[in-house]
């Protein structure tokens, strides 16, 4: 009996090549409408699926291949006599190769199509054929990726048949594609996030050289809808990003977009080591640099405004790994190009992921992003902050959001002069931040004070105002200490732990 290959593809690139090859090997080619026409034009001898099913395509293409004659031909277990006699009884011929790729749902997401258009992009017949063939991979070769056409030809040429391993590998690919395809549909339909199953759809962009350390494997997967910062970064110069680079630039980018004013953030080990707002990018950079001219070395520098030549010249005086900004002046790029390894990233996309995911052993955690800054400002001391001090307080709290807990940020003139991060008790974070800052006017804390010790320490360093969420049963102690030391204290009512 003549062997049969069913070809039904949306992406018709190179389809004639594989069809001609299979025809040359004696396969009968079956195809759905559009694929049939394309192959016919290319001179392939092809039979239309509707001729095989005896039922014309209908409902505008919603039903083309969904028929027992097709799925029986694919799913019959060739080693099972019962299956084969059923085929014979029903006059169904087996289908040995299934080549299908799907309606472009991912591309539709990127093009922001309407809901009705997206629904029409949900392929039904394609995944059904792919899944049937992949389930029966022992007997059927299934191909979902046009990039595999050459591999099939090579496999045939080398072995004169398709090996079990190859067929299994192709089936694995199919379930990977169809599950991601369905996950994207599920994600698209899901508006409130309260799903029973976690369905997210990401595609591997590349293997990274290594993970956090050189003995760890790592890869970058991008959202299939083309959204998100990482999907919208243009690398204008320098080598590829590393795993740590990506994690770091994510935080630096989030910091600068906390601000409407021109802002700059220098960051190391996922922690801002300098951050400032200024008149322009140059001013913000110089202030961020001066927060901590030592730690910035080898760091990441993010801006929320275009970067000019003067700023690039200043940055080039030190070694940094990455500069990321919404845009660059041409002469700034020329300046940066003097540094071979410096990654220059252009990104005009602001952070907008709704959820953050973290894996723990055996589970995934999901939370909404920490998008809020405060509930309500409460002035809890007699002594009130000046307008300028209040601005520094808000500035400090915006930085605190991105510093690992316990987090204390000491601010002066809209510069994060001292950052105390990731300490297991708050007083250590305060000591670190105050010590680093040298001098500062404002102290911001990501969470409340259980004792008055942080206020006391702040007083020693001449701090004028403190902003913190408040809410401790011992708030009174801190407030009293502030009154005693002439420090103003403001509560925000909102904690910003970052673990
Ligand atoms: N409904 C069906 O029976 C059906 N059978 C195949 N398709 C899809 O139709 C596309 C190919 O169609 P055409 O050959 O007409 O261009 C493929 O992407 C394939 O996945 C179908 N379409 C969608 O649901």
TrEMBL record:
Entry remark concerning the domains of this protein: The IMP cyclohydrolase activity resides in the N-terminal region.
Protein name, per record: Bifunctional purine biosynthesis protein PurH
UniProt cross-references to Gene3D superfamilies, sorted A to Z: 3.40.140.20, Methylglyoxal synthase-like domain
CDD domains with a match to the protein in the record: IMPCH (cd01421)
Superkingdom, taxonomy of origin: Bacteria
UniProtKB keywords: Hydrolase, Multifunctional enzyme, Purine biosynthesis, Transferase
GO molecular function: IMP cyclohydrolase activity; phosphoribosylaminoimidazolecarboxamide formyltransferase activity
HAMAP family named among the record's database cross-references: PurH
Recorded metabolic or biological pathway in which this protein acts: Purine metabolism; IMP biosynthesis via de novo pathway; IMP from 5-formamido-1-(5-phospho-D-ribosyl)imidazole-4-carboxamide: step 1/1; Purine metabolism; IMP biosynthesis via de novo pathway; 5-formamido-1-(5-phospho-D-ribosyl)imidazole-4-carboxamide from 5-amino-1-(5-phospho-D-ribosyl)imidazole-4-carboxamide (10-formyl THF route): step 1/1
Classification via SUPFAM superfamilies: Cytidine deaminase-like, Methylglyoxal synthase-like
